[in-house]
Write a structure and sequence with these properties.
Layout lengths: L1 H12 L2 E2 L4 E4 L11 H13 L8 E8 L9 E10 L3 E10 L2 E11 L23 H5 L7 H4 L5 E5 L4 H7 L5 E8 L7 H11 L6 H5 L10 E12 L9 E11 L2 E10 L4 E13 L6
Antiparallel strand pairs: 1-2, 2-4, 3-6, 3-9, 4-5, 5-6, 7-8, 8-10, 9-12, 10-11, 11-12
Helix pairs in contact: 2-6
């Protein structure tokens, strides 16, 4: 099943170009009620990257979510060329459905060359192969978090800590979440697709630390959460069919909004990408799903 889900991920990233800057993207067979934000961002990234005049590496993506998408209908990606130079490029991508604007993404590209280098060290965590797969962690919780059990799983997850639902069952709290990730199959030798898989995965677990900080969990507690905006900074090239560690935490939650921050590290310990996501997160104490 997982490899079939991985093939579906590759299929939805293979956009249909219908004009100079217009692409159409489909949905996979398994979807949440509204289009997964990571999917829209990854498809937007691919659309923008396919219009580049030069071979330039991505430097940043920032998306604002305006309306939810209908998984039963295709998405249109309208790419606006803002800048095209030998070492720099900028694109805006408007994601449309039935004439309505769902998401706007700004994507920048830069070939910077060698310069100063430093980075934070990764946390000390167990190796991914020593950890259980996500399916094992969902066993016994099928009725508690059915939306996770039934979700598309093109990415292999290996939690280094208990996931939210297990933590909640134990009555524990944690102010961070750390998960090893890689695609469930070998990726084509295309840097755009590897970066797109990272973008897709960056929309998972990043808000979890908001609720685990308070000892809460999806499924157990009545929680409403929706992403408002999401940014990714690409520091180094990544191969996403090799293990990367996604280390996330939440520095603040206030006024019904929470911020999640994340860092992707490769297995050598190098920081390859940084993520910041803001979401509306509301908890309704005393009410269960």
């Amino acid at each position: 099943m997982s490899n079939a889900d991985f093939q579906e991920l590759l299929a939805i990233l293979d956009l249909n170009r219908i004009g100079d800057g217009t692409f159409v993207g489909s949905h996979p067979s398994k979807n949440p009620v509204r289009t997964f934000g990571g999917q829209m961002m990854a498809q937007s990234f691919v659309a923008a990257s396919r219009t580049l005049a030069n071979d330039i590496a991505p430097s940043a993506l920032s998306a604002h979510f305006i309306a939810g998408g209908d998984p039963e209908k295709d998405l249109e990606f309208h790419v606006i060329r803002l800048r095209d130079e030998r070492r720099f490029a900028n694109r805006r991508v408007d994601v449309m459905q039935n004439g309505a604007l769902l998401t706007t993404a700004m994507i920048s590209y830069m070939n910077g060359g060698r310069g100063l280098e430093h980075g934070i060290a990764p946390p000390t965590v167990p190796e991914p192969t020593s950890l259980p797969k996500i399916g094992e962690l969902l066993r016994g919780y099928e009725d508690t978090v059915p939306h996770f059990v039934e979700a598309l799983r093109p990415i292999e997850w290996r939690y280094t800590n208990d996931p939210a639902w297990v933590m909640r069952d134990k009555g524990e709290k944690l102010d961070h979440n750390r998960v090893w990730l890689k695609t469930e199959g070998a990726m084509p030798d295309d840097p755009v697709l590897h970066a797109a898989a990272l973008v897709y995965s960056s929309d998972t677990t990043v808000l979890d630390s908001i609720i685990t900080t308070h000892g809460l969990s999806w499924g157990f507690d009545r929680i409403f959460a929706v992403t408002m905006n999401h940014s990714v900074w690409f520091h180094r090239p990544v191969r996403f069919d090799e293990w990367v560690l996604y280390s996330t935490s939440s520095p603040v939650a206030a006024e019904s909004r929470g911020l999640g921050t994340g860092h992707f590290f490769d297995q050598s310990g190098q920081l390859v990408a940084t993520v910041v996501q803001e979401g509306i997160v509301k908890h309704f104490p005393g009410a269960k799903r």
